[in-house]
Write a structure and sequence with these properties.
- The strands form two sheets. A seven-stranded mixed beta sheet has the order 5-4-1-6-8-7-9, with helices on both faces. A two-stranded antiparallel ribbon has the order 2-3.
- It contains seven helices and nine strands, in the order βββαβαβαβαββααβα.
- The protein is α/β, with parallel strands linked by helices.
- α3 (72-84) runs antiparallel to α5.
- It has a single domain (13-188), classed as Spore Coat Polysaccharide Biosynthesis Protein SpsA, Chain A.
């Protein structure tokens, strides 16, 4: 599941739908992660559902079920509930909508460390809490923790669930994150450089 439910306040609106490369920022992320999973869903704001439905008719749209904004964990819980209904699913992989150069084998590297707890990506410099795999068995624990207010951040969930960290082997720009207009310009420059090598 790609998490695209944030407000995008630092960039002036719907970050996932920003023009990027030959499509949108979300298109770039989909191109990277869709081949890595058996099914892909998009966690988006309910208020923007029609815009996403028109552009992405082939993907389920998932809306946070919490009345108040609880951040990325709301999307993770929604994704875990969706994945639990899929036949044979045991894990949910999550990706941010603003990281267009994710490794093509990110899920495989994370799954190599899979046990009975979530596994989070680390690039050698910092942890990337949304680039993760979550066992479906953690749904109730996570949902209860958010509902009673004990879990309010990905970091708190990581600690409560005994998460593991996976050092990801990847290009230096693999986790480049877009938050500002300057980031978009730098990201498009990187995109052109990558295309020039192929």
């Amino acid at each position: 599941m790609i998490l695209a439910g944030g407000e995008g306040s630092r960039i002036g609106g719907e970050k996932a739908l920003l023009p990027f490369g030959e499509g949108t920022l979300l298109d770039a992320v989909i191109a990277r992660v869709a081949p890595q999973v058996s099914q892909l869903a998009l966690n988006v704001p309910k208020a923007s559902a029609e815009a996403y439905r028109r552009r992405y008719p082939d993907y389920p749209l998932l809306f946070d079920s919490f009345a108040e904004r609880v951040g990325p964990l709301g999307g993770v819980i929604t994704g875990l509930a969706w994945a639990r209904a899929l036949s044979g699913a045991q894990w949910l992989a999550t990706f941010p909508c603003d990281t267009p150069f994710l490794p093509h084998d990110l899920v495989a590297q994370l799954m190599a460390d899979a046990g009975d707890a979530p596994v989070f990506a680390h690039d050698g410099h910092r942890q990337h809490g949304i680039c993760a795999i979550w066992p479906l068995t953690c749904l109730e624990h996570l949902r209860e923790g958010v509902e009673i207010g004990h879990l309010r951040s990905v970091q708190s969930a990581m600690k409560a669930l005994g998460a593991k960290t996976c050092m990801i082997e990847a290009e230096a720009h693999a986790f480049f994150n877009i938050n500002t207009g300057d980031d978009v310009a730098r990201g498009e420059e990187l995109e052109r450089e990558i295309r020039a090598h192929f």
